[in-house]
Amino acid sequence: MAAFTGTKLQRCLSQFGGSSLTIKPNKRLLKTMLKPNACMARHLAFNSFPWNQSSSDIYPADPGDHWFFGAVLFRQTYGQQSSKAYMRSFRDCVMIVSKLIGQMDPKNNLSGLIGSRLDRFLKEAFKAILEHNYKLHLEVTDVSNLSVIGVRRVQGPLEPNSECYLFSVVGQQFIIPPIGYETIENADSIMRFIEELTAEKFQMVIKFRAKETFYITGSDGEILSGSKNSVSSYHMWVFETTVPLSWRVADIDNYVHRRSKYKRTFHLLD
Question: Which domain of life is it from (predicted)?
């Protein structure tokens, strides 16, 4: 289809008695178009920062059998202590981590509290904000209604990447590197390889509500994301521990999950 040039457009309009039609420019649109980084700025603000605000509960719990199986494995490893015993520590961690994020972690304290992939993505986001002269404001004043919505065992490399393969068996995760995947021929060889994975982690998925203020402003002070109003928002954080017990925040609002998908995922008995 030929493109509409100015002359063709006026000729088309004249056929409908509109030859005298005046097309007025949209000043707001022109202003946006004159800003070369405007679209990129909004993409950064909405898609590249690991904090999602939601007034409704958008985070479903893991299926009951997945949760039960994960909880049994967790208790076999760490004893009979209830997951509720960790709620106070998780709440304190949310307050501390959110405060450091709001300050853009000036002393690099987050690396001792969060997983390596989340730490890397946050550093990238902080760098982008500084490079574009944006401003970040995040303040969490209260955390309530904490609940466990999933318990999972994760076996595989401690530092997995996008070249790895993920096998999920009743919700429990087995991460297999490319070299290991090449040796798998059938279901029996999958299970044999899984049994040889030694590095072990557990994840506890926590849902809560936060009283918070979150927004990112551009260099001209325009709000690119969030709101200056205090809101009540649902969040889902994944806490992860190795053996012995040492919790870190592995994911915030599914951000790491979206940003670093595995090469392929298989679900067995799910």
Answer: Eukaryota
